[in-house]
Amino acid sequence: MPFIIDDEMLINTSAEVKMFFKGDTVAREGECSSFFLYLKSGELSVFNFTQDGKEFLQHKVIAGNFFGEPAVLLEKPFPGHVEVASEKATLVKFTRDRLIAFLLENPERMLDFTISVAEKSIRKSHSLKNIVFLNPEERILHQLRDYKKEHNCCPTEKMLISLTRKEISHMTGLRIETIIRTVKKMEKEGKLEIKSGKIYL
To answer: Locate the Cyclic nucleotide-binding domain: which residues (predicted)?
Structure first.
């Protein structure tokens, strides 16, 4: 469930609105921040680097969501590197102490914030379990269904999945050759559609 910010919240917390562009770094893995970050528009990629320098895409952040909240709450380093994936993105920066004070004064907003953090925690737990236990086809399907759910698409409606084969590879831990081969097999079996190279589910 996206966490919606309003004018009252922006004013009472003296929040700062900033514009970023594709490829800009928003947060670096291992750094601490005294700001809560909220994505108002655009899309972000959250990833880690392996020891040999390869990227592992954790997930994408879509508009209407905070990101990195546990690290800021606990005053710990960010667990991932965050970059702008869309052409541009608008972020809202909340000073940690001011946002916490606002939430304590507004219990309903505190509950909404807590639920949004809990939902993301559950999704990450499921994703980790799927990487460990599921076969390639099940991993890919789970990732595509999660994408639809995050974009509030009805499960029975077809939707363009705006993820590249490389991104799906990074998110599932599968080699890109495996992704390409498995997606083609799934298309033949009628489990998804491919139009002009794009995946629809």
So the answer is: 20-120
Domains of the chain: 7-129 (2.60.120.10), 134-200 (1.10.10.10)
By the 8 A CB rule, do 79 and 128 touch? no
Euclidean distance between CA atoms 118 and 20, whole angstroms: 27
Is the alpha carbon torsion for 8, 9, 12, 18 positive or negative? negative
- Residue 77's Cβ-count burial label (10 Å; 0-12, 13-18, 19+) is middle
pLDDT digits (tens, 9 = 90+) for 57-71: 888 898 989 999 999
pLDDT, position 2: 67
Q: Tally Cβ neighbours within 10 Å of residue 44.
A: 24
Is-above-0.90 flag for pTM? no
* Per-residue pLDDT reduced to its tens digit, 110-137: 999 999 888 888 877 777 676 667 788 9
- With beta carbons less than 8 A apart as the criterion, state whether 191 and 200 touch: no
Do 84 and 20 meet the contact criterion of CB atoms below 8 Å apart? Answer: yes
